[in-house]
Write a structure and sequence with these properties.
Elements lengths: L1 E13 L15 H10 L17 E11 L2 E10 L2 E6 L3 H19 L10 E11 L11 H11 L12 E4 L13 E5 L9 E6 L3 H15 L2
């Protein structure tokens, strides 16, 4: 599949944030000011109680030099139970950003960061892609369902239906509230002849693209 753009590339680190500061040092407002200056955030919380609807401290509109001559836009959310980094580049870039914050913050404020405090890492990759193949290849029998739905709609002018997408959700035993589903569907507000799709997956961006290439080759018509 041809990548059109990265919608979201998110890295999530779950851990007890209080473990970064075991002695309870007063870090506000110095820490917030350092983050603002270091990563050029244009929005920074005004206090430790200035949280969004998800109870996160939000630092948005920032930039980060992920490698030589490559600067990306970044957003950071700090929760009591972890960090979330959003980029529009790749999940690996988002994770590199979190690593840089953690290591630099440790040096700047004598925090107790060490990689082993992170109990779980998760990712969200959302992509817009292009493919000349169609989702009906998943199962040709679905075309019969399209026809049946059309026939059952009352009236003379009936709409036609197509296979608009596929969703694979985590099993209930796998704490689905923490993992996003795999989705591949027609991109919103596009026609079939544009051949554009939206996809999300709880994967690194590069693994997501490899999965979509496999999906296109083996399951699409």
């Amino acid at each position: 599949m041809n990548l059109l753009n990265v919608v979201t590339a998110r890295a999530i680190w779950l851990f007890d944030v209080n473990e970064l500061n075991p002695s309870g040092k007063a870090l506000f407002p110095e820490l917030f000011g350092w983050l603002e200056k270091e990563y050029h955030f244009n929005r920074v919380p005004k206090s430790v109680t200035d949280v969004d609807e998800t109870k996160a401290l939000v630092f948005s509109g920032g930039t980060f030099q992920v490698k030589e001559k490559t600067v990306i836009n970044v957003e950071l959310k700090i929760y009591n139970d972890g960090f979330v980094a959003n980029t529009w580049s790749s999940t690996h870039a988002a994770e590199t950003f979190l690593e840089h914050i953690s290591i630099s913050g440790k040096e700047e404020f004598s925090l107790s960061y060490k990689p082993e405090i992170i109990r779980r890492k998760m990712y969200l990759s959302e992509l817009n892609v292009e493919s000349l193949r169609e989702l009906i290849g998943i199962n040709q029998k679905l075309s019969q369902l399209n026809v049946k739905v059309t026939e059952l709609i009352p009236g003379i002018l009936r709409p036609t239906f197509e296979v608009g997408g596929i969703t694979l959700s985590p099993a209930q035993s796998m704490t689905p509230q923490l993992l996003s589903p795999f989705r591949l569907e027609r991109k919103l507000n596009t026609s079939p002849d544009e051949h554009k799709y939206y996809s999300s997956a709880p994967l690194h961006t590069d693994d997501h693209l490899k999965l979509l290439d496999w999906f296109e080759e083996n399951l699409m018509a």
